[in-house]
Input
Amino acid sequence: MAEVAAPNFAPPGRYLGVGPFVVFLRAELPDADAALGALYADFPTWPADAEIFADFHIGLERPHGLRRWLRRQVLFSYDGERPYKPLKAGHALLMFEGGLNWTIAENANFFLVLHAASIERDGRTAVLPAPSGSGKSTLCAALVSRGWRLISDETTLISLADGTISAVSRPISLKNESIEAIRRFVPDGVFAGPFSGTEKGTVAFLKPPADSVRRVGEPAVPAWIVMPKFARHAAPLLTGRGKADTFMAITESAYNLDLFGRAGFETLATLVDRCDCYDFVYGELEDGVAIFDKIAAGPG
Amino acid sequence: MAGEPIWGIGDPEDLAWRQWDDGLVVYDARSDQINRFDPITGEVFDELQAEPRRLGDLVPAMAERLGVVADNELKDLVAEILRILCAENIAVPVG
Output
């Protein structure tokens, strides 16, 4: 049975349950360990000597060699490989979150993996595929603070067998202006960061709702595909979107569609078949929540 | 019309598709490609999928389906759509 104590990923490391995956994580940097402990406090973890199969072995390591004396850095390792250049040690959490996104996208090939957020209410799920900068994560963070269940902020995992979505509720990545917007919108939220000077500007993470983490084993049934776009001061505008258009757009969000051939096409087409499809422009988070609540209150 | 080829849709083992109000998407297993077509091309696809036809038979069927006159303009349009579907190996001569 999983322990409920605050996790500690310092050597020798610890197993971490993240949705359908078990990650063995070993964090050599105390700062990273503390931040991970705060964000993943509600997640199931197991000690290093537990007899558990890990899908991914991840390390946050100190580089060896002379360079480590010049500046404190961190390396991400996955199953012994080091796919990234080192970052400064203070960005270890950032490296873990980005690295885990990459690891899932590269390896979760028993799912069709979309670059999309997903949120659920009353048994129906909205999939939000959108490029970086569209306001997807900001809207997602606002909605899960108002009763929607977080399925995923970054990678939506679709079953090829039945089209349901497996939750992989993890910390929500926020960038630049959206960090302060969500701090105001979710005043009791638990945040890690901000981390400035990254490739994407300033980044912070919001701890996922405990209820979403607790319910991570419940598959989600897709009902809507919504393409969000943040436009400062814009009035909220929800417009229907053609399914062929939506299908083609969502193929751009699929990391591994080419692996599955016809089965991938059928899975994606069935997702579009079963969903109402929308474009959504918003300028205020309160408006975004109100519109999504209205969608959720509609007929099933 | 004798001598005109009869057109049909390629082997269903090779193709998967969805037709929606705003267009048709077709997956081709031979190339592992997905193509998207406009709604009228989708209607032609639908006609051919229901029953292989000569161009001369397809034009009046499309006129009825679209609620327009079966004139030369429609014939040219349908011929162009057939050419496009043929180029993607989606429409093929079946006889």
